[in-house]
């Protein structure tokens, strides 16, 4: 059974919880990613920030990305997957929480990010549609 660590993108870069959303957007652009883990004291994961969060929850609401901090949008306990968890567990987690990206942890350490695309590439072709349907399904 394939494990998260086998298909994840290793070496995820964090944005510090006190860094601005503008800095986060620049980092996303430079890295070519749409989400960043938000890390606090001692590199501990405190949330995940997406490009959509910046646009919808800051800019569209009249906020200033130059002064708003990453921590402000990293609410609640982050949804994660263990490095040794199976692809099926990752799919269940993505479906349950309706997320397309999961930080991968090993113990308390962030070791990578697992995206819907990473999971899709690991599945047989006939299961990819199932993944997209499960993760994108309306919850209401």
Automatic annotation (TrEMBL):
SMART domains: CBS. Keywords: CBS domain. InterPro entries: CBS_dom (IPR000644), CBS_dom_sf (IPR046342), Diverse_CBS-Domain (IPR051257). It comes from the Bacteria. Residues 8-65, 73-131 form the CBS domain. CDD domains: CBS_pair_HRP1_like (cd04622). This is CBS domain-containing protein. The lineage of its organism: Bacteria, Bacillati, Actinomycetota, Actinomycetes, Micrococcales.
């Amino acid at each position: 059974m394939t494990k998260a660590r086998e298909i994840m993108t290793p070496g995820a870069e964090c944005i510090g919880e006190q860094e601005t959303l503008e800095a986060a957007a620049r980092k996303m652009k430079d890295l070519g990613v749409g989400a960043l883990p938000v890390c606090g004291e001692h590199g501990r994961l405190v949330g995940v920030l997406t490009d959509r969060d910046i646009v919808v929850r800051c800019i569209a609401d009249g906020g200033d990305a130059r002064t708003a901090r990453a921590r402000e949008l990293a609410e609640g306990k982050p949804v994660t997957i263990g490095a040794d968890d199976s692809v099926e567990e990752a799919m269940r987690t993505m479906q349950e929480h309706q997320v397309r990206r999961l930080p991968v942890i090993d113990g308390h350490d962030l070791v990578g990010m697992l995206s819907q695309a990473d999971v899709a590439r690991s599945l047989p072709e006939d299961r990819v549609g199932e993944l997209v349907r499960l993760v994108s399904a309306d919850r209401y």
